[in-house]
Design brief:
Layout: E1 3-7, H1 16-30, E2 42-43, E3 46-53, H2 59-62, E4 63-70, H3 92-112, E5 131-139, E6 148-155, E7 176-183, E8 188-189, E9 211-212, H4 225-235, H5 239-245, E10 254-259, H6 263-270, H7 277-282, E11 293-296, H8 305-312, E12 317-318, E13 321-326, E14 332-335, E15 340-341, H9 360-370, H10 382-386, H11 390-404
Parallel strand pairs: 2-12, 5-10, 10-11
Antiparallel strand pairs: 1-6, 3-4, 3-5, 4-13, 6-7, 8-9, 13-14, 14-15
Helix pairs in contact: 3-9
Length: 405
């Protein structure tokens, strides 16, 4: 019996800081209880944003998990809501970032009430300079960061199932390299981008292109996580609305990736494809092309796909739930297929109680209560209010204009 195996043979290095961060995230995740977590034969993706206070000398106290998100599904184009009351994209990175935005609004409220926060005691609001933010993702972001060469091996017998390299001097059973293939993504190039050749081997995908997330038969309009993180490296992770309250963008100092990490693909997807002279010239202070450190971690996420397949075989399925959490609140669980809170069905789906606290509508409601000037009794819609974030939108427009040229 001949068993085909797909293995990436390039050495991927981890580092102590990444492992320290990931262990803290996993510890926090484990403390959140069982609600919304994968069932026995299910997997999910875990993401988190972590605060580091470099002014604190004690290593254990300088790191704090700020937000956590899980999930790996999104709504199809025909399911989207125009009211901002659904979570269109329930991928872990997006959930963790939306929870982080909620945390920022908490901090703005603390500052307004004269309580200690992450901001300096000044106006306009500015982060305290000793603070850094890091993101952990348990699996390579979907899209461009998930496309890289892999080696296909032929295993001489079923018992040899490890990812060892071809025979070495210790007498390890030799494996013949069958061919070089490509780790593939279900994310599709957006219209106008270079299409995937879909040829055999390493010519299956185009690389460096913008992609939308895969849908279950219903195409999506949600950009891939690789594209969203790359965008955050230009416009920050605070979003347009919060940029009105906090003028300087908040950038990630590092991104830590677990399963399916590839150094070359991660750097290409999240950093290198942003490096154009036209974009550098088009961006206006305080926006810039930020370059976070990209790290790998060896510590596995026990409920990730790789760990679950190693534990119980390949018959694992994606969890249908997505959770969000940030420091100071309880976990909220969403049904990813509806974009609404768990426990709500067709009969009560339109109830205000079914709406997630991290939806656009909910975040906008919180923003309105904190907006700089409340003299205007008619502040406008979510869309018209975002238009007031001129510097943020200018940076975003410059990014997409340069990417499309």
């Amino acid at each position: 019996h001949v068993e085909m195996m797909e293995v990436d043979t390039r050495e991927q290095k981890s580092n102590p800081f990444a492992e320290e961060v990931v262990n803290l995230v996993l510890k926090t995740y484990n403390q959140l209880g069982k609600k919304g977590k994968p069932a026995e034969r299910e997997f999910t993706v875990l993401a988190s944003i972590i605060l580091e206070d470099i002014a604190i000398e004690n290593r254990e106290k300088r790191l704090q998990v700020i937000s956590i998100g899980t999930g790996n599904r999104c709504l199809g184009a025909t399911q989207l809501s125009q009211n901002g009351d659904k979570i269109n994209d329930s991928h872990a990175e997006v959930m963790a970032r939306r929870a982080f935005m909620s945390f920022l609004l908490d901090q703005v409220e603390l500052q307004r009430n004269g309580t200690a926060s992450i901001f300096e005691e000044s106006f306009p609001l500015r982060l305290r300079p000793q603070l850094k933010f890091h993101m952990f993702v348990s699996h390579a972001p979907c899209g461009d960061a998930s496309i890289f060469p892999i080696e296909k091996y032929v295993a001489p017998d079923e018992k040899t199932q490890t990812a060892s390299k071809p025979e070495d001097e210790t007498g390890t059973k030799r494996r013949r390299i069958e061919q070089t293939d490509l780790q593939r993504t279900g994310a599709r190039p957006v219209p106008g981008e270079l299409a995937d050749p879909r040829k055999d081997g390493i010519d299956f995908h185009s690389v460096g292109v913008l992609r939308t997330k895969p849908g279950r038969g219903n195409p999506t309009t949600s950009m891939s996580c690789s594209d969203k993180i790359a965008m955050w490296n230009v416009v920050g992770i605070q979003g347009a609305l919060i940029a009105i309250l906090i003028p300087n963008p908040i950038y990630l100092d590092s991104i830590i990736i677990g399963d399916l990490y590839d150094e070359e693909a991660s750097n290409r997807a999240l950093i290198q494809r942003l490096q154009s002279p036209e974009l550098i010239d088009a961006l206006k202070n305080p926006y810039r092309i930020h370059t976070p450190q990209i790290n790998h971690c060896d510590t596995p996420f026990p409920r990730g796909r790789t760990a679950m397949e190693e534990k119980i075989g390949s018959a694992v399925t994606a969890s249908g739930y997505a959770l969000n959490w940030w420091v100071g609140v309880d976990v909220e669980v969403l049904t990813a297929a509806t974009g609404k809170k768990m426990g709500f069905h067709k009969k009560n789906m339109d109830s205000p109680k079914a709406m997630s606290r991290v939806s656009k509508r909910a975040l906008f409601g919180r923003w309105l209560a904190l907006r700089p000037s409340k003299e205007d009794s008619h502040p406008g819609t979510y869309a018209t209010t975002k238009m007031k974030s001129e510097d943020y939108l200018g940076a975003k427009d410059a990014l997409f204009k340069c990417k499309s040229e």
